[in-house]
Amino acid sequence: MQPNEPLRLSLSNITKRYPGVVANRAVSLSVKPGEAHAVLGENGAGKSTLMKIIYGAVKPDEGDIQYNGQAVQIRNPQQARALGISMVFQHFSLFDTLSVAENVWLGLDHSLSLAQVSARITAKAAEYGLDIDPSRPVHTLSVGEMQRVEIIRALLTEPKLLILDEPTSVLTPQAVDKLFVVLKKLVSQGCSLLYISHKLHEIRELCSACTVLRGGEVTGVCDPREESNASLSRMMIGAEPPALKHQDRTPGAVLFEARHLSLNKEDQFGVNLADINLQVCAGEVVGIAGVSGNGQRELLYALSGEDTRALADSVLIDGHAVGQVGPQERRQAGLHFVPEERLGRGAVPSLSLAHNLLLTRSEAISSGGWIDNQALQTQAQKIIQKFNVKTNGAQAPAQSLSGGNLQKFLVGREIDAKPKVLLVSQPTWGVDVGAAAQIRSELLALRDAGCAVLVVSEELDELFEISDRLYVMANGQISPSIQRKDATVAQIGEWMSGLWSAHA
Amino acid sequence: MLKLELRSEASELWRYSSPLLALLITVALGIGLFVLLGKDPVRGLQMFFWEPLKSSYALGELMVKATPLLIIALGLAVCFRSNVWNIGAEGQFVIGAVAAGGVALLADKETGRWILVAVVLAGVAGGMFWAAITAWLKDKFHANEILVSLMLVYVAEMVLGYLVYGPWKDPAGYNFPQTKSFEAVTQIPRLMSGSRVSVGLILALVGVAAVWIFLFRTRSGFAQQVGGLAPSAARYAGFSSRKALWLALLTSGGAAGLAGALEVAGPIGQLTPYIPSGYGFAAIIVAYVGRLHPVGIVFSAVLMSMFYIGGELAQSRMGLPKSITGVFQGLLLFSLLACDTLVAYRLRWQSGRA
What we know:
By secondary structure, chain A is α/β, with parallel strands linked by helices. Chain A contains 16 helices and 21 strands. Chain B is built from 14 helices and two strands.
């Protein structure tokens, strides 16, 4: 970069207000040409809003944007693309039934024929070492391949600034490495990157500059390669997360077991479960790793009792065959479950916290089926206090709570039932760091009290932090288990692609 | 420029004020309508909002019409809160009336008072049976309950027509399509002399309390509503969606059938092709204007009853067509749907800059 070359992008004092919340407050950000710039922050820190402003999808209330040294007003994504700004979203926007080339073609201006588009895709893919066949239908692609399509689509517009929103959250560690090769090549060619993430090690590997957001405000600008995890965390959350204490322990008897569990998918976008075998012992946290969409959802339906099509003796709670009974009976047998979707599944959004207790708890219900409202309020109040849930009270509707606080309440609701077995899916997904740390330590406390805990998560870091033993799920199958202390990220990553038979 | 802005939380105030605003808009539009038709708007409004209230006899008539609306709407409230869309209460009302009429026709001079209980129960059973067809088709074949229940309204009317033009026609009735008048012993008892208000009103008010208790104080009522608010949460909790479907349709069908029985064994006293009076459809509006809440439905049933009576008075005294009743009902529903926007959104003035 020449010293007098203008900044690729410069934001000054960007403010965006939504009813009841300021998403960005006087945010300034500078990206040099050919710089990989990280935007680091917790969920809800305002990263996504800021990126949407740059991409023209959201209009800021105040502030100026300069692009290549010139003041611009980006009114819509088309204009952003015309300026050379491209974005790869966290959630893909691809049509399953169309081919790769057709999907890409849809997003371009239609001056090119489909054949020309195919040729350009192949050329671009070869240039960056992205292996993709333009004629394949999208529904046959893996998640990593779909992301490649999104990236190629972005690259075909010859961007000068590429925005990536948490691109690695759906990838195996090996696929992340491949992605980084592509991104580094782009940077070396002079393209600037804005890389949104909360994963510190990725940022440190890829980026040479970093802007940290907290609560909509910039709390630090730094070179991530010169910062420690602790100092970055301090900027991101204002404190360092407390370290969890881990001790070796001998687990007790098997409390929960899936035996040769096979199940055909319920709908055409599902995954067939094939011969799932897993065991969870008393006083043990078992993690299931894997990229989502590999059967985790179907497995949890079958384990929790929401799907009762399995053979009776393919799911066992403390030795009792429960494969064909519903969630209420399984709860009576001692199995509780915290689902991944908090609003709409774990809780009814419009109902109060107290009423949401009735989904899984029946202490406030008399034998005749009458609801004792007084007892219900007291019960909810106790959980709110015990698990430090920030809310206006037991009467507050579930949808009024932040993700982290609602998750604390839901985890609290199930832990408070003193379960023998607890299933938890994505326990800290979309949860702020403070709440995540609290939830993890609650899970460990439950384990220490002798409960069998099964955690399904996409976050490998989290599983390594809390699990005693790990399974990996891929293509509706489950790997043999491995003790956490014997496992490495590389090995688990390989297993996430379904390649465990070599080791077993 | 006026702009709609999403509220961060649904407004409780507007949830309850929106029906009142809708009523005001309906009245305003009504005034415009009267003016356009060249009628005196003050007199027109009098027909709807004063005449039905001005004497104890008028109030009694108001209750006579409000009773079936209230009973049907209570059943529909349970149904709609469960996310089951029974649009065919009219058909269940008709079959309830047919079943009750069939039992009433069995009575003769010697029959005891017990027949009354049989008449009412037959009405409930008839309505339940008709709704059960919808429930069964939905349960078994995932047939859309909106279409099935609506289509069954026309089938029910055909069944009624077949019976009164055919096997049940009164032989001494000069070939009019109607059954013989029911024996006095089958007559639903009236509450007082000088008014046509029957014990049906008491049943309706007991129904209000029962539905309130069911919805807000029992576990099954809670389970029923979770299925409507968040089906995945109901599945997660282990509340059966099939049970909710059957309970919703049987409750609303039974309620509509009860209303049908109370009508034929009450004010009408025989089966005629004119049993379908639109109560089953009007009750949908009643249920929504009453916010699917049993107490709210009491008020909206009275309001809708005023529209019925006002429409009749406007016809006889002002020479307006009877369809004015339907126009008012429709205006109210549309205004309500529009006003409900304010529950989730707020209006804001913004400067002209787009």
